[in-house]
């Protein structure tokens, strides 16, 4: 079996991983980006302004990881959105469609019981986004 070409993508322009994992891994011509919260790069804290501000920041952070790999949002073929409250689905979509305006990637969205770095009193206003399976061109 042929060896896979594997490359770690890490950029200081996006929040550092908060655990023992990489921001992104490229295997051959497929890129996997770890989930991103709406964290401010400088402070490492969730941005203020609720779910739309956090969604925007999470997507900006992912854009920086994409850029570090020589890609952009047009390379994305699959995303996963994890919400602390599924009632925020429409609010997230309003922001999401400003980053993916046509030829939308496939997507799944779920409500989850907990998100990392989110205190109990802020759960309702938090979202995490995960991009998967980017085809590099």
TrEMBL record:
Provide the GO MF annotations for this entry. Answer: deaminase activity
Please state which protein family the record places this protein in.
Belongs to the RutC family.
**Species of provenance:** Echeneis naucrates
Instruction: Name the gene.
Output: rida
The cross-references to InterPro entries, in alphabetical order and at most eight, read:
RidA, RutC-like_sf, YjgF/YER057c/UK114
Q: Name one GO cellular component term.
A: mitochondrion
Protein name per UniProt: 2-iminobutanoate/2-iminopropanoate deaminase-like
The uppermost taxa in this organism's lineage are: Eukaryota, Metazoa, Chordata, Craniata, Vertebrata
């Amino acid at each position: 079996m042929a060896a896979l070409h594997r490359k770690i993508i890490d950029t200081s322009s996006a929040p550092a991983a908060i655990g023992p994992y990489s921001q992104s891994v490229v295997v051959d011509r497929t890129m996997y980006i770890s989930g991103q919260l709406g964290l401010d790069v400088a402070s490492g804290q969730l941005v203020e302004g609720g779910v739309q501000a956090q969604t925007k920041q999470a997507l900006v952070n992912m854009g920086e990881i994409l850029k570090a790999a020589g890609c952009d949002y047009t390379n994305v073929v699959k995303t996963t959105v994890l919400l602390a409250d599924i009632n925020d689905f429409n609010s997230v979509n309003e922001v999401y469609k400003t980053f993916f305006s046509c030829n939308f990637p496939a997507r799944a969205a779920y409500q989850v019981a907990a998100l990392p770095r989110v205190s109990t009193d802020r759960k309702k206003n938090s979202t995490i986004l995960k991009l998967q399976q980017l085809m590099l061109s």
